[in-house]
Amino acid sequence: MPAAEDEIRILSPTGVCGSGFIESSFAKALSQKPYFIGVDAGSTDPGPAYLGSGRMAFPKDAVQRDLRLMLRGARRLGIPLLIGSAGTAGADVQLNLFYELIQELAAADQLKFKLALIHSEQQKPYLRQKLRDGRITPLHPAPEFNEATIDRSEHIVGMMGAEPFMRALEAGADVVLAGRASDTAIFAALPVMRGFPEGIAWHAAKILECGAAAVVNRKTPDCMFAWVRKDHFVVEAPDAGLRCTPQSIASHSLYENADPFKLVECSGTLDLTNSRYEAVNDTAVKVSGSEFIRAPRYTVKLEGAEKVGYQSVLIGSIRDPFIIRQIDDWTARLIEKIHARVKMIYGDRLGAEDYLFNIRIYGKNGTMGPLEPVKEIRSHELCLVFEATAPTQEMASTIAGITRHQALHLPIPEWSGLITAVACPYNHLDRGAVYRFNVNHVVAPDDPYEMFPMELIEINGAAHRRIAA
Amino acid sequence: MTALADLARLIRSKNAGPFELTFDIMFDDASTYERVKRSGAVSREAVAARYGVRIDEVKFFFCDHAFAIKASIPRPYFQGDPRDSDGHGGQQYAPLMDIEIP
Prior knowledge:
The complex is a heterodimer.
Chain A: E1 7-12, H1 23-31, E2 36-42, H2 48-53, H3 60-77, E3 81-88, H4 92-109, E4 112-118, H5 124-132, E5 136-138, H6 147-152, E6 153-159, H7 163-170, E7 175-178, H8 183-193, H9 198-208, E8 224-229, E9 233-236, H10 246-252, E10 262-264, E11 268-271, E12 276-279, E13 285-288, E14 291-294, E15 300-318, H11 321-325, H12 327-346, E16 356-362, E17 382-390, H13 393-408, E18 429-437, E19 441-443, E20 454-460, E21 463-467
Parallel strand pairs in A: 1-2, 2-3, 3-7, 4-7
Antiparallel strand pairs in A: 1-8, 4-20, 5-19, 6-15, 8-9, 9-13, 10-11, 11-14, 12-13, 15-17, 15-18, 15-19, 16-17, 20-21
Helix pairs in contact in A: 3-4, 7-8, 8-9, 12-13
Chain B: E1 2-3, H1 4-7, E2 10-15, E3 20-26, H2 30-39, H3 44-51, E4 59-63, E5 68-74, H4 94-97, E6 100-101
Antiparallel strand pairs in B: 1-6, 2-3, 3-5, 4-5
């Protein structure tokens, strides 16, 4: 490798592996001779069910299509392919799903390469020890996190920084398949490792991690390309029809961040306060002035999910204006009836604190809940979603069944005689297990690697052999 | 007076991670952005009032390069919790749309 590089070129094919990209854009980007291809494959955005259950948010076939093109492209150019947050949440079961997909692709194309597998799932004894050592601290806002939380969790992952990627590259990995990772770390690792200014490298990474999302006229998920240099970077989408403007690139740091100027990573904070954005031409933007402030303490964010229970859902609607005008009172009376019926059926086997019964009222505050500023109901009909969440599916299903019967015939003072108060398009639905995120904390590890063990594997077509890391 | 929704290119809300909600109010050009910024009608206090949260819980930013105003608040329920109603946080911006701009 040349000692004095003045440019690192980076290809990000898409914002999430499995969401797709246009093949002609990808081919053009490869012709611009990237030093590596990076791709993020996960997020918390689809919700806690994926970390909880170990399933993937994107369909396997869609993921494999993207992986196939990226793997072929990277091997053809002989450049690294860096994949972070494998399988949506980066738990071991999801990392293994990706590993199997890569093995299938290597076998089909007779590809030969060195693969680094970096785990991000955290062992419960390790976390208990860190908790006892006072090395797990909350971000804001955060749920309660204690040893009981650790015990209840289905999976807890650490979000790795750039260092585990650097270690894999230093070990000669051609393909790095990582569990949960900071999206930006995937793209910042190599330029930072080669001595490029961290502010420039991390800011370029921030733009790249969403693929072409930062263009003015996004049509479909597609590729983004960056030229990282010593005092600036230039970014441009390979598709000739896509334009980046100073405003579109500056705007990108707003998306899904609480603070648009300060982006916290394991090793420090990317500070965009003094960033400058200039148009290079109609489609490319030059960015300079971004800074990276090293943190005094290296921290790794945790993500965890636990099972809340099993859920059944009943959907119904109300058109009677008498019921609509007393809906809060009506639902309060219904909840009382349901608790009484559950007690009749289960006695002490299912206490009121052992299950959740929730009613969403669409037409009132179904979308915004407590944030809804409009208090009066302006609709002539309401949609009600009744949710029962209990320790077993059978119990949840029983409560939903009770709900249907109780809600149908709950009396109101305006009518005498048996009424049927709710229109149900169909019977209740059993949703299976439901999960919640249960941690928003950081760990201070002894070093950036201890939470992220690496395996090195020689892949040669269908053959694979573990080698010493 | 003009409603904010008639001046903005885009008003949107989204999760900023599972524990916070963030709002972006974006403008096409510097002059509209400056008009809204200078009016003082879009402020930390205005966001707190519209969502019924404490002023010190609102993060608030003017983003001059992006011609955008940004605010973030804690989620009333964490993403995906049993009572959460908007997993992506995408439909929480409506109360900002009718802020009157002089």
